[in-house]
Amino acid sequence: MTPSWQTAGTDLCSIRNLLRMLRTQSTEHTPEELAQFINEHVHQQNILTQIIGLSEVQYHGRAASTADQGSYLTIIKPDGSIQIHKSKGVKPMNWQPKTNEIYARVENGECVLTALRHRPEELVRITFLETVIAQAFILAEEGGFILQGSESEMQEVLAHHPEIIEPGLIVLERELMVSSGGIDLYARDSTGRYVVVELKRARATQSAVSQLARYVRSIQLALPAGSEVRGILAAPDITKPALLELQARKLEFKEIKALPSIKKDVSPTLFE
């Protein structure tokens, strides 16, 4: 059983983190005040707005639909996308992946949120009848996906399972030392071309691209003239500038989101 003081401490820490993110909230407001609240926050960078209460949803586009009055959670993300959730299920009952215009105004005494998309033409209207709470949260910049374990462990797994990078890939050496540093994986593809693989367990940046390019150049200089050498940057994600530089240098990116575990042999001890 978890000690009560530990649970209380964990809850207190969570509350503090929540309060740091919470920009403002409103629990008692008129339709005019709710419309002002929405308009103030939906156009700000890194602000997520959510509204909980009794509402009605209408959609017009490739089809037309109306959701009966119900208690729904409406989420408006910083990129303008909208999700409307019911009390059950993971998938939203209605959503707008991208909006060109989004605003709230009072119509017939009720606050109405309108979200327009131009291509394809779609419209979502949410009429807030009774709002329990409206909140605006400040979200930090995306941190990116990071694989568990170290890059050394990532290297070990991919050395055992190079097919994750590319079918037919054969690893020749790990940590091959060249004039520019140590190559994570030195391999040969199914057509016989040599491949330099640089591994990153987090989002790859331009420095990783430059590092890979140096390793590829080192191998090219060590091989007979005219030998083709490929360079692959394997990581969970890559920044846009890094991807553009990678393509300009005619190098490749392989997305690695998950890795299998490998069984390690355990040698018996003297007393077993």
**What's the rounded overall pLDDT mean?**
85
Helix % is: 10-25%
Identify the CATH class of the largest domain: Mainly Beta
Label the CATH architecture of the largest domain.
Distorted Sandwich
Subcellular location: Cytoplasm
EC number: 3.1.-.-
InterPro entries: Endonuclease_NucS (IPR002793), NucS_C (IPR048301), NucS_N (IPR048302), NucS_N_sf (IPR049173), tRNA_endonuc-like_dom_sf (IPR011856)
Family: Belongs to the NucS endonuclease family.
Secondary structure topology:
Elements: H1 4-21, E1 22-26, H2 31-41, E2 47-60, E3 64-76, E4 82-85, E5 94-96, E6 101-107, E7 110-117, E8 122-138, H3 151-160, E9 170-178, E10 181-188, E11 194-199, H4 206-222, E12 229-235, H5 240-248, E13 252-255
Parallel strand pairs: 11-12, 12-13
Antiparallel strand pairs: 1-8, 2-3, 2-8, 3-4, 4-5, 6-7, 7-8, 9-10, 10-11
Helix pairs in contact: 4-5
